[in-house]
């Protein structure tokens, strides 16, 4: 995978963070349809990538602390498993406005990379089944492909089985 970045230093906070870290990645842009019911499944279809390799970034509240969960778009987040993965008791989806304010990204474009405030992150263990995975690059219609090992390292993620079909 090659780095693809605008020469003028532009890009999203996610691509800037990847470039600054020297992490190899590939950007994939597609035309986002605002009427699409699922941003992640739309990305998988538009890019021709299996939905088990495209991961969505969700923000949950675990015992009062915002936590990022990165799970395949084909499945759902298991909130109980997420809480357990970080040593918590209860998890619920975070208020969308709080998620946007804290990460610096808009819903449907939240990336696990380059967030305004670094949050605890849990990556679904199934990511390690793939040589590369795709996650949001920080805006709707833009995905970044990178190795799950690099994704986990850059986000200090815990790998745990937090997704369910």
Query: What is the CA-CA span between the terminal residues?
Result: 29 Å
Question: Radius of gyration, rounded?
Answer: 15 Å
Fraction of residues in helix:
10-25%
Strand order of the largest sheet: 5-2-3-6-9
Query: Structural class of the secondary elements?
Result: alpha+beta
**DSSP strand count:** 10
Low-pLDDT residue spans:
1-9
The dominant shape is: globular
H/E element sequence: HEHEEEHEHEEEHEE
The main pleated sheet reads as: 5 strands, mixed
Mean pLDDT across residues: 92
Content of β-strand: 25-35%
Total of DSSP H or I helical runs spanning 4+ residues? 5
Keywords:
single chain; 165 residues; alpha+beta; five-stranded mixed beta sheet; three-stranded antiparallel beta sheet; 5 helices; 10 strands; globular; disordered N terminus
Structural summary, described in words:
The chain is of the alpha+beta class. Helices cover about 25% and strands about 30% of the residues. It has helices at about 15-20, 40-45, 80-85, 95-105, 150-155; strands at about 25-30, 55-60, 65-70, 75, 90-95, 120-125, 135-140, 140-145, 160, 165. It has a 5-stranded mixed beta sheet. A 3-stranded antiparallel beta sheet has the order 1-8-7. The protein is globular. Mean pLDDT is about 90; it is low at about 1-10.
């Amino acid at each position: 995978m090659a780095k693809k970045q605008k020469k003028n230093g532009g890009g999203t906070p996610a691509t800037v963070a990847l470039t600054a870290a020297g992490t190899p990645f590939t950007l994939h842009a597609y035309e986002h349809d605002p009427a699409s019911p699922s941003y992640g499944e739309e990305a998988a279809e538009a890019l021709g990538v299996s939905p088990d390799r495209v991961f969505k970034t969700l923000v949950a509240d675990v015992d009062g602390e915002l936590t990022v969960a990165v799970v395949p778009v084909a499945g759902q987040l298991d909130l109980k498993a997420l809480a357990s993965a970080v040593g918590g008791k209860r998890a619920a989806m975070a208020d969308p406005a709080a998620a946007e304010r804290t990460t610096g990204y808009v819903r449907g474009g939240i990336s696990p990379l380059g967030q305004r405030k670094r949050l605890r992150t849990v990556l679904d263990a199934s990511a390690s089944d793939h040589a590369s995975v795709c996650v949001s690059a920080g805006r709707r219609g833009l995905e970044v492909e990178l190795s799950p090992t690099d994704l986990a390292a850059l986000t200090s993620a815990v790998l745990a089985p937090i997704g369910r079909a």
